[in-house]
Design a protein that fits this description.
Radius of gyration: 22 Å
Largest sheet: 9 strands, mixed
Bound molecules: pyridoxal-5'-phosphate
Order of helices and strands: HEHEHEHEHEHEHEHHEHEHEEEEEHEEE
Strand content: 15-25%
Shape: globular
Number of helices: 12
Structural class: alpha/beta
């Protein structure tokens, strides 16, 4: 894979389309691709926003082993992966990835058995599990052999925004642990068991990192979201510091993780945080166009072939119905990207087997032409394609298997 560093060039939309068309001329659609020039620029931006605080890379938002490796090797400030299932974590560990933090609790007894073996072989470097309750500790204890070295665990803290004395609750429903007292109590419960060892604290501000404050067509909503995010960030700053202080009195912490692409700069500025997480920012999917604080470049997309022409300003492509997860709505649809100014049909959206695109540019499209789309989210694209064509400058320089292409289907 190409690894030389160089800034992305500024290109007009028409240039970009011509560049795609020339580079992908011999590749029959459907296919997915990653634009390395844009990825390099995003890498630079993300590192700049983190201001020297190490970035843990969210594997769920990349889902391509070779690209995860590429990112980690680009800069020493990228440190470790935030993974999404225990089988995935163990696979990555077998493939030589180190410093793995599993961001979501597991109930996979079989994989816990394998983790126990790995932890016994590497008590200080084995992957770390997420916990938020005594029930998680019981589950782990029941699944691992008594002779195993203690499983490394991380406490997840809820950092949702609860104004009006908690009558309104904004933020992902993840951990029940919110206060320094609750976190310290769980830390003591961990310290009292032989089966587990506390190494970290993680808090993800999903209502800040994952909600754009510059969405099209909703000025008042954007103002309200921005105000909520600012107020919440202030509250998190002091609460997270108090929790870190309380937990550190029970056990020394190797890591305090926070943030995501949409909150990178704010979270990295908190003294209590030792590392931030980013994943989506590498590909820069459509949802990340809608943040005031971000100026990333679209780096991943997919191309579908035109297969019919129902009318003058309509072309229909094969497939394309790759809907993103989350609260269902129009913002979860893929977006026609090039040629310019195409839009989805509001009555059909993006379909399982065919997707009409509408606009002036559709008039000149003929059968077999490529329409380029962007996914609303990042890593989910890789569950639809077995490889990513790697575009570097004006050439396709490599084909990289996605997780799916490696026969892996974790979620
Ligand atoms: C725990 C955690 N941290 C960070 C992130 C942010 O990742 P991204 O940069 O892909 O938005 C997520 C995404 O859901 C997450 O669950």
């Amino acid at each position: 894979m190409a690894t030389q560093a160089e800034p992305a060039t500024t290109q007009t939309t028409a240039d970009q389309f011509a560049r795609y068309e020339a580079a992908f001329e011999s590749i029959p659609p459907p296919f997915a691709f990653v634009d390395l020039d844009a990825m390099r620029a995003n890498v630079t931006d993300l590192l700049g926003m983190a201001r020297g605080v190490p970035i843990r890379v969210a594997s769920k938002s990349v889902r391509c082993r070779a690209l995860l490796r590429w990112i980690l090797e680009r800069d020493a400030r990228f440190r470790g992966l935030l993974t999404f299932t225990l089988p995935e974590t163990l696979w990555l560990a077998r493939e030589g990835f180190e410093n793995l933090l599993l961001a979501y609790p597991t109930a996979d007894r079989e994989a816990l058995g394998e983790l126990a073996t790995r932890t016994t072989g590497d008590p200080d470097g084995a992957p770390v599990l997420m916990v938020d309750s005594g029930a998680h500790l019981d589950f782990i204890e029941a699944a691992v052999p008594a002779r195993s070295a203690p499983i490394r665990v991380c406490i997840e803290l809820d950092v949702g925004w609860w104004p009006l004395g908690g009558r309104v609750k904004i933020g992902p429903k993840r951990s029940p642990i919110r206060t320094p007292e609750a976190a310290a109590a769980l830390a003591r419960a961990i310290a009292s068991r032989r089966s587990v060892r506390l190494v970290g604290l993680m808090a993800y501000e999903g209502h800040i990192a994952g909600v754009g404050d510059d969405a099209p067509g909703s000025r008042l909503r954007n103002i309200a979201i921005h105000a909520m995010q600012r107020a919440s960030a202030r509250e998190i700053r002091s609460r997270r510091a108090a929790v870190v202080d309380a937990v550190s009195r029970v056990a020394p912490l190797e890591l305090v993780n926070g943030g995501g692409t949409g909150s990178l700069a704010a979270t990295a500025s908190e003294p209590a945080v030792t590392e931030v997480t980013a994943g989506s920012g590498f590909y820069d999917p459509v949802l990340f166009d809608h943040y005031r604080s971000l100026d990333l470049r679209p780096a991943a997309g997919f191309a579908m072939p035109v297969v019919r022409k129902p009318g003058g300003r309509v072309a229909t492509v094969l497939g394309g119905g790759y809907i993103a997860s989350g609260p269902s709505g129009r913002d979860r649809l893929p977006k026609p990207y090039k040629p310019r100014e195409l839009r989805l049909d509001p009555f059909e959206g993006a379909g399982e087997v065919q997707t009409p695109v509408i606009g002036d540019a559709a008039a000149s499209l003929t059968l077999g032409d490529r329409v380029y789309f962007r996914h609303a989210k990042a890593g989910e694209l890789c569950e639809r394609f077995s490889k990513l064509y790697l575009l570097d400058g004006d050439r396709v320089v490599d084909e990289l298997p996605t997780y799916r292409g490696e026969g892996k289907c974790f979620l």
